[in-house]
Amino acid sequence: MHKHHHTIVLSDIHLGSQYSKCQEVSDFLKSNSCDRLILNGDIIDGWQLHKGSGRWKKRHTRFFKVIMKMMERHGTEVIYVRGNHDDFLDLLVPFRMFNIRIVSEYILESAGKRYLVTHGDIFDRITRNIRWLAKLGDIGYHLLLWFNKRYNNWRVRRGQPYYSLSQEIKQKVKGAVSYISDFEKELSLLARSRNCQGVICGHIHKAANVWYNGIHYLNSGDWVESLTALTEDHNGCWQVVHYELEIRSSAPVLEIGESPEVPPVYLWTQAI
User: Which of 54, 200, 244, 247 can pair with 48 through a Cys bridge, CB separation 3.0 to 4.6 Å?
Assistant: First the structure.
């Protein structure tokens, strides 16, 4: 069943990385249209492409073709907020052409409230100030995803469902849990300092819809591990949407001439 929203927010798709769930996010957009689409950073993984460990494939181009169809059919406004992995966009910011904008951050009006839209790397001092150390951490993260992929191949051969080992490890590492908590609180403080009542971000691959001292904190998650998005209805109500639940309730909307592809069913739901 097709759903139309006022706003959809996606982040951390990491197109160009071998772990990007590009087909799944494309299927999601074929079943969910919107008036405003916010691509909140790390949509393209420039780091992986630059060092040669990533590769641009046809399915990555198809993702942008799906967005172009949304613009054509629904008049969708597209706002691309640069992230740390697609920081090559700094050469274009600010950019505007027709219904497309590329910005470093954005102020969104929702039900009379102001939301600061930022990828979130603004508070990651390691990423901003010690770039070589950030890239070293990126290598470690991709090693974890590599192990996660092979572990799940082993589970599939035994008829067991998908299990996000990488998410489980991060949730059990005390330093990672503390970082996520500090990140959420600091981004909420930033929103308050900008005279905003909410903040919408990505970056840490952890979807959320919570409140911090009167500030509405929203994180769209990612399309590498958890496969989540944010949606806003025309009354200003926000929710975290899980792809796993979406594919249970509706099949992907196929374009004319497309062959039906059954996406992998991710048998988990991340608690928010």
Answer: 54
